[in-house]
Amino acid sequence: MKHASSSSFAGLFIPATLHPWRLTDTSLAPGPPISPIILIDIAPTFAAHLRASDSRARQNQDQNQRPGQNARPTRNITGPQSALTDFLASHNISARQIRDDAEQRRQHALSQAEQNGEDVTVTVAESSSSGRRRASRASRAEDDEEKSKKKAEEAKAIEKIKATKAFKKRKKAAYDSDDDDEIARAIFEAHHAPLPGQIENCAICSKRFTVTPYSLAGPDGGLLCAPCGKELAKEKQGQPKKKPRKQTGGVGSRRAMASRLLDGDVGTKSLATLCVQTLAKNVDLADSLGDLPEHLVDKIARIFSKRRLLKPETLPLFAQPLTETVHIYDGARLGEQDFISIFQVAPNLKRFKARAAIQFKDEVMDYLLSRNTALESFYLHGANLLSEEKWHEFLAAKGQSLKGLQVYYTDRHFGDDSIVTIAKHCPGLQRLKVENNQKMTDKGVEAIGDLSSLQHLGLQLQNRTAPEAVTRALSKVGGSLKTLSLKIVPDADDTVLQAIHEHCHSLTKLRITESEYMTDKGFTDLFTNWANPPLQFLDLQKCRHVDSTRPRHNDDGVGLCSEGFKALMAHSGSRLDHLNVHACRHISREAFEEVFDEKAHYPELKKLEISFCEEVTDFILGSIFRACPKIKEVNVFGCMKVRDVRVPRGVILVGVPNAQGMITEGTE
């Protein structure tokens, strides 16, 4: 610590760095400067002077006190401080610190003098310049010793940090895993960094500044003030950034592995899958997909959508002059002109599918109507800006060749009148799906009965549908239906099940979800002596009794319960490929054990969803694995009695918590 001020006493010059007192006696005249080591000789005289001054001050205080007045006890209350004292205090410089530093320097000078065999007492004639040089050399030696000691302590602390878990975690996530010292030093500096609001010296210019959360670290440690931080940032702008380390483990790889398992990719990837993934990584280098089979092009389109790679620059890969099928699984980044370009480039287009087609507006439909494109399948998802008038024009112009129409998320732009238009202009329509629709009512549902060639029907309407409307539609078209999907039909009751039993004799897929009025007896009657062949796909999720006050009491047998579950497995178990009884919590343990007993055999069942069926146990899961040799995936979320079950090789169990997440891949 350097001080420019000095004081004199009895004709002797005393540097301020070597004494902690401020002399206020104006009678002291300055004298010639002397070496700091002279203080050893004059210290007794200086102390005697201070004691005499103190004694005179006390005598004056006693004389000023009035007679008869008791002296008050002092309470260490001091008067106003000088400007210099306030200035030093604001810079964290205290008298004690000055005193301690001076004592250390005196001791250091004495030890050096004794080692060199010199006499401590020095005459006044010694020049002040030689004294200052000796003091500066002693100060530098002390600073060097302090720095070396500090570096040794820092090195020891860094070595300790390298053995901690925090260092290993930081190293695993760091870009450059080879620089261990840099990582450990960063942790050390983070632990010893001043908190925001504290005063710190800049590591470059040594100016004092207030630490903020945005203060940068210096190249050799410490923090930088704002001007130095800006200069350092400018210097680093031209330097190349470190390349991120290729991730070999951690959260990202675990998520990718879980996604791969849920997609059904178990074991070694096929050559076609590897080629498709390589293409997705180098999409900027591809000019066309060539003559790839349609299923591989569809797989590429799915991967592009999953990675958000489908954009105006990559769309030409899927729209070529000879293209007949275009599947867009994520069109959120495509504009009006991009959709128009598809119909410009591909005049032979027959099957068109676009999900998240937000920009498919009236202008795009106008261009499509101006072309001679004979579409056989039209799938549009999320085109809520397309007006119902344009839908009517499209159905009237292209309805003769149309065999499939699937409309999702159209808000209030596709209603009952559109269904009537379909019945008039689409005589060959075989597939109709209308989901997340806000305009269609019972009138439109009844109008579906006029579609005589219909084979596949799927409905999910926002308006509550009366069971009578569904029954009347099924009585007309049920005989030709191969798939029937009624999603979220809370008002559907046993009359709908009875209509299915009576009129639907060719179904391979049946989905009825979230019914609050269908009963176990209705399901039992449906599957008992049903003339329909065994189903391949059955989804009855959330067909259960709903009562928050008595959730486990079901006196009326609402929903799919034990008897209905036995009946459906007896009817369709031999051909069933996919079964979903999610949240059908009233199926008893005895029913599961009876259905999957040691004599049961379901050769085609590959995917089973029994989440939130509370009676499922480890024993029942083991019975399922034994009775279903082709089983690939079982979902058991919410089955709290499933704790420790052995999963066969090639089977994925989803929903049981473990160290890797919620997915267990069989290894037995």
UniProtKB/TrEMBL annotation:
A GO cellular component term found in this entry reads: SCF ubiquitin ligase complex
* Biological-process GO terms, alphabetical: SCF-dependent proteasomal ubiquitin-dependent protein catabolic process
Sequence ranges assigned to domain F-box/LRR-repeat protein 15-like leucin rich repeat in this UniProt record: 328-546
**Pfam families named among the record's database cross-references:** DUF7885, zf_Tbcl_Rhp7
Residue ranges of domain DNA repair protein rhp7 treble clef in the record: 196-234
State the InterPro entries in the record: FBXL15_LRR (IPR057207), Leu-rich_rpt_Cys-con_subtyp (IPR006553), LRR_dom_sf (IPR032675), Znf_Tbcl_Rhp7 (IPR056451)
| Top-level lineage group | Eukaryota
Region: Disordered, residue numbers: 51-80, 99-154, 234-254
The residue ranges flagged as biased composition, category Polar residues, are: 60-80
Q: What is this protein called?
A: DNA repair protein Rad7, protein
